[in-house]
Amino acid sequence: MKNTYFDLVEQSYYFPQEGFDLKNGFLTFHGVSLKYLIEKYGTPFRFIYLPKIGDQIKKARNLFNRAIKNSAYKGKYHFCYCTKCNHFHHVINEALKHNVNIETSSSFDIDLILHLLKKGKIDKSRIIIHNGYKTKEYLEKIIALQEKHGFTNDIIVLDSIEEYHRLVALKPKSKIKIGVRMAINEEAQSAYYTSRLGIPYNAMAGFVEKEIANNPQMELKMLHFFVDSGIKDTPYYWGEFQRALKLYTELKKTCASLDSFNLGGGFPIRNHLGFEYNYEYMINEIINNIKTVCTKENISEPDIFTEFGKYTVGEAGAIIFEVLEQKQQNDTENWYIINNSLMNTIPDAWSIQEKFILLPINKWNNEYGRTNIGGISCDHSDYYNSEDFNQEVLLPKYSSKDKTPLYLGFFHTGAYQDSVSGYGGIKHCLIPSPKHVIVDRDDRGNIIDTVYREEQSVIEMLDILGYNEASLTKKQSI
Question: What is residue 189's predicted lDDT score, i.e. its pLDDT?
Answer without folding.
Answer: 54
